[in-house]
Design brief:
It is a single chain. The chain has about 70 residues and is mainly α. The chain has a domain of about 30 residues. The protein contains 1 helix and no strands. It is rod-shaped. The mean pLDDT is about 95.
Length: about 70
């Protein structure tokens, strides 16, 4: 049977092994958060560009008398 002292020693050993992993996870979480923000910015940019391009195409189609494909 393990004593309280044994359990404390085991806990300290486990904690020393887990601490570097916790630090790495914190860094990874931060990186993921930055990537998500970057993706949101990129999506917003492409959405705006698509909308602007779509408007231009519609104007061209209207001027040329072409029917919309959509």
């Amino acid at each position: 049977m393990l004593t309280k002292s044994d359990l404390n020693k085991i806990e300290k050993i486990v904690e020393t092994k887990i601490d570097p992993i916790k630090k790495d996870l914190k860094i990874v979480k931060s990186d993921i958060s930055k990537i998500r923000k970057d993706i949101d910015v990129i999506i917003a940019l492409f959405d705006r560009e698509y909308i602007n391009l779509r408007k231009r195409v519609e104007k061209i189609e209207e001027r040329l008398g072409l029917s919309n494909a959509t």
